[in-house]
Amino acid sequence: MFSKFLSANSNHSWLKLSLTLAIAIFPQSKILAESMPEEEVGKINLVTEIEFDDQNNSKNKENIDIFLNKQSQFHFAKDVRISPLKALTPGELGDWQEEAVHYAQRLQTNNFDPDHDHHHEPHQSVVAISGNPAASNMLVGTGQLGQWLGLDENSPLRLGGIFMGNISQQISGGNQPGSTDFNGALILGLGIDLEKAVGWKNAFFEVEGLQYNGQPVNFAAGSVQGYNSIEAGAPLNRTELYQLWLNQTFFDNRLSFRVGKLIPSMNFGYVGRPFVTQTNPQLFTSTTGLIYTPVFVGPAMLGFIPGYYNSAFGLYGSWKSWGGPGDNPATPNGWYAQAGIYDGRGAQGVQTGLTWPNFSGALFSVAEVGGTWTPYTDDPAIGWGSVAVGGWRQSGPLTAPGGAFESQTGGMYAYLVQKLGKFRDSEDQNGIVGFVQGGWNSSSTALMHSSLGFGLTLIAPFGDRPLDSYGFGFSWARLNANPLAGYGFNSYETMIQLYAQYHLVGNLFIQPVLTVLPTPGSGGAGAPSVSGTVQLTFPF
What are the CB-based long-range contacts (under 8 Å, 24+) for 417-425? Predict the structure, then answer.
C-alpha cells in the first residue's frame, strides 16, 4: 500500500500540485491524479519516490516518472528491474504512450518455470520467441486461456495453449521440387499450483494434450537433420497425451525433481535456452527463432532422446548453485547439474508419445553440467552467457534397416551461448546473441554420428519493433552412410537457414524462413535444396 509521496521540481517551484495516488503493486501500477490548467503545465517532468509494502510485507522504494501532456493529464511509468525511463516532454508523450501499452502487456504475461519459485514476478519482456515453443517450454502458452475463461490471477489453476502452423514450398532440389506441405500443432495444458490448491509447498502439476496434423516436409527437401521441426516423423496425424508430471522443489528451489510423462530434449542439449535453469524466465525465452530441428535436438542424439512430439515417462532431477534468499534472481551466476532416466523404446521405433510406459525395456539416461554468467550485476542484459557439457547412454537392443545391430550406445554433446552486445539502452531486451553447438556418438545404428552448428540472432534491432528478431543458423552433420545401416544417406548434410520473426498483434507472430541445403542428406535428393516457409505462432 502507498505510504509516502515525495515530489520536487526546482525549475518550477511556483507550481502547487495536488496529487492523489493509488499504487497497485501487481500486476500493473496505477496513478490517479488531479489535472491542472493547461497554461500551468509546460514541459514539466516530475520524479517521485514511492515507499510501499510488497507481497512479502517488506518496505521497498521504486522510481515513478510522472509526465504531464498537453491535455493536462498525468501519465506514469513504473521502474521494474530496468534502468529508469527517460523523462519525456509533452511532445514525445504520444510515442511513449503507444510503447507503454506493449510494455504493460509484456509485464502481465503469466509465464512460469516449475523448477523455480513460482511466486516471483515474471521477467519484464519478451525476447525472440522459440521457432517451436512446443519443443521449448515446460508450460504451454502464456496462461491467457485461463484469463479468457474467467480464472482469477490468484487461482491455483493455469490454463494455456499454443497453435503453431506453417506452409512450406520446395522451391528447387530435394526429393520433391515444387511440392507444398502444411504442418500444424495445437497444444492445450492445465497446470495446478498445489501450494495454492491444497497447501503442498513448492509443488506443481501439469497435464497437456497435443493434436498434430502434417505432411512429410523434411523428406520433400531431402533433409535428414530436419529443417522444419514441427514435422517430427510419422504418424503425421496424431492426438496424444503430451505431458503429465509432478514437480517438487527443495532448499530454496535449488534442488528440483520431476516425474511423469516428460520431454527430456527441453532440458538436455537445448541450445535455445540462454539459462538452462533460469529464475524468472522470459516468455518463450530463446537465443534463436530458428525452426530447424538441430537447435532443439542435437543431430547426434536425434532418434534416441525423447522429445517433441514423442514424449516419454521418466524421472528428472536438477541442482543449481544460485537461487537462494540472498541471490539476485536477475543475475543467475553459477553452476548447475541435471540428470534424467526415461523410457527409451523410441530408439527401437516405438511411438512413446502414443503409448504407456514400459521400464522393463530399453532406457535412455542423460546427465549435463553447465554454468551461467551475467558479468554486470547492475545490468544483467549485457553479456550474459551459458555453457553446457552432457553425456547420454541408450540401452538396447538396437537395429537399423540394413541389419546393423548393437546392444547399447552413447554419446556426448556441448554448447555455448553468449550475448555479444546491445543495440541500445532501453527497457526492452535487444542485442546480438551467438551460439555454438556440437555432438558425437559411437553408434552403428544412429541416423547421424556427429554434428557442428552455430548461429546469430538479432533481437529487436529496431527500437520501434521491440518484439521482432532476425537470425541465421548453420548446421553440419556426418550421417550414417554405412551400407549395413541401410538408411541410404549421403556421407554428410549441410544446412543454412535465415529467418525474420515479426510481431503482428497481441501474442501473434509471423515468421518467413528460407532454408538452403547445399548438400542434402537424403540419397538421390537434388542439390542444392531450397525451401521457403511461412509460420504463424499463437501462444495463449
Answer: 417/271, 417/273, 417/274, 417/287, 417/385, 417/386, 417/387, 418/383, 418/385, 419/274, 419/381, 419/382, 419/383, 419/384, 419/385, 422/381, 422/382, 423/460, 423/461, 423/463, 424/463, 425/83
Least confident of 68-82, 426-440, 490-504, 514-528: 68-82
pLDDT digits (tens, 9 = 90+) for 161-215: 999 999 999 999 999 999 999 999 999 999 999 999 999 999 999 999 999 999 9
Measured torsion, CA atoms of residues 389, 393, 394, 399, in degrees rounded to the nearest 10 = 90
pTM, full prediction:
0.76
Q: Which three cell numbers stand for residue 127?
A: 525476447
Closest of 162, 131, 99, 185 to residue 507, by C-alpha: 162
Decide: 391 and 420 in contact? Cβ < 8 Å. no
Q: Are strands 203-213 and 237-250 parallel, antiparallel or unpaired?
A: antiparallel
Distance CA 210, CA 164 (A): 11
Cβ(312)–Cβ(264) below 8 Å: yes
The whole-angstrom separation of Cα 163 and Cα 212 is 10
- Cell numbers at 215, concatenated: 505432411
AA identity, residue 43: K
CB-count exposure of residue 340 (10 Å: 0-12, 13-18, 19+): buried
CB atoms within 10 A of CB 339: 18
Classified as helix, coil or strand, 420 is strand
CA 224, distance to chain mean position in Å, is: 25
Q: 364, 264 in Cβ contact below 8 A?
A: yes
**C-alpha–C-alpha distance, residues 453 and 495, integer Å:** 9
Position 489, amino acid: F
Question: With contact defined as beta carbons under 8 Å apart, do 76 and 66 qualify?
Answer: yes
- Of 2, 89, 125, whose CA–CA distance to 430 is shortest? 125
Least confident span in 29-38, 151-160, 299-308, 480-489: 29-38
Strand residue runs (E) in 176-333? 180-193, 203-213, 237-250, 255-262, 312-320
Q: Are 231 and 216 spatial neighbours (Cβ–Cβ below 8 Å)?
A: yes
Work out the end-to-end distance of the chain between its first and last CA atoms, rounded to an integer number of angstroms.
Answer: 31
